[in-house]
Write a structure and sequence with these properties.
With 370 residues, this protein is an alpha/beta fold. 29% of the residues lie in helices and 24% in strands. Strand 3, helix 3 and strand 4 form a beta-alpha-beta unit.
């Protein structure tokens, strides 16, 4: 890998991240076209997943693409979907070389794109930008490999692990700068998810605010009985951003009709005991096309996801306040008897935002499974 390859791939990765949160079910891909050391075209996957990054870059480059090198953050698609294959577009444009991190795990592609390019006489080099690209495409890969979206759980806690006082006062544990960062995280996910208790207690809007976003995330509420207030911000803003309600089969039919008539999407989820089956819920979201879901609680929903070993990323935002034992804990009961059965995470990053400490953790295998 040359320094130039690394530089142009970094730019392609930066471009690809512009599509995060608004390209599902497609991956958020970036593409840079370079000829004689000069960038002649750039593109990234557009909202809704089309046009693709390669198409955007080729349109910008025009005839200058002949003989160029294309830096793409994922193997170009080779199958006919709602758009023609990107491999065909690259071949027709006369691109001489394609640089990518690795093959696409989607079985419709999975090396076929690279094979088609090589068959057309195009040089294909891989292994550039693999670490960053793996993280950027983690949600897409999770859906392809496991049938569910990647799940990020955010917990905003006091220094002693509380999310509210005993009477439910939680505004604000973290500062304005950290809350602005949460909106950035929402924007990079396909959906924001909360439990029914959070809707009843906080009446959240769950949209991205403070910046221009091409597509608001889907707003998901997990509510077995659909016992949600119909004077809530979510109900009043159904025309502004999608609302999906995950409920059990025994939810009252009248409430189902009310929410559906108002414009919400209802997703029926089987029960696991007295709670919704979290694995089935996430697989339903994956089947609907979601690749990245950002969960903002509350404590019972967070505990259910952790107990089901479904949390892939943990965002822990700690404010400089102490609430005490009478405050509400960040998590509900996990039912653990052995430490070896506890969900474990590896620290990915730690930084200060304002007066808060923001930690990002990634899922590890449980000790009992090793």
């Amino acid at each position: 890998m040359s320094p130039e390859d690394a530089q142009h791939m970094d730019r392609a990765l930066d471009l690809g991240r512009r599509g995060m949160g608004n390209t599902w079910p497609n991956p958020a891909v970036g593409c840079v076209l370079v000829r004689n050391g000069q960038v002649i075209g750039e593109g990234w996957t557009q909202p809704g997943g089309r046009p693709h990054a390669e198409t955007q870059a080729l349109a910008q480059a025009g005839k200058a693409a002949r003989g160029a090198t294309a830096y793409v953050t994922l193997e170009p698609c080779s199958h006919h979907g709602q758009t023609p294959p990107c491999t065909d577009a690259l071949i027709a444009a006369g691109v001489a070389r394609v640089v990518a991190p690795f093959p696409d795990t989607d079985p419709r592609v999975s090396g076929r794109g690279f094979a088609a390019l090589r068959a057309a006489g195009i040089v294909v080099d891989t292994g550039v930008g693999t670490e960053v690209a793996t993280e950027d495409h983690a949600g897409f890969f999770c859906r392809v490999s496991h049938g569910r979206p990647l799940l990020t759980l955010k917990l905003a806690t006091s220094l002693d692990g509380r999310i509210a006082t005993a009477n439910g006062d939680s505004q604000w544990i973290t500062g304005a700068e950290t809350r602005a960062y949460v909106h950035h995280l929402r924007a990079t996910h396909d959906a924001v998810m909360v439990g029914a208790g959070t809707v009843r207690a906080d009446d959240p809007l769950l949209t991205v605010r403070g910046g221009n976003v091409p597509k608001q995330p889907v707003r998901i509420v997990v509510s077995r009985r659909l016992d949600l207030p119909q004077d809530s911000q979510l109900y009043r803003s159904l025309d502004d951003a999608p609302v999906w309600l995950c409920h059990a089969e025994d939810a009252p039919h009248a409430l189902c009709r009310t929410w559906e008539t108002a414009g919400a999407t209802l997703i029926r989820v089987p029960l696991d005991g007295r709670q919704l089956d979290m694995a089935s819920l996430l697989h339903s979201l994956g089947a609907a096309g979601l690749t990245r879901v950002f969960c903002e609680g509350g404590g019972e929903l967070a505990a259910s996801l952790l107990a089901s070993d479904l949390v892939d990323r943990l965002e822990l935002h700690m404010g400089g306040v102490v609430i005490g034992a009478e405050g509400r804990p960040a998590l509900g009961a996990l039912g653990l008897d052995r430490l070896a059965d506890a969900p474990r995470f590896g620290l990915r990053s730690l930084r200060r935002i304002g007066d808060d400490v923001v930690q990002t953790w990634t899922r590890q295998r449980r000790q009992s499974q090793e």
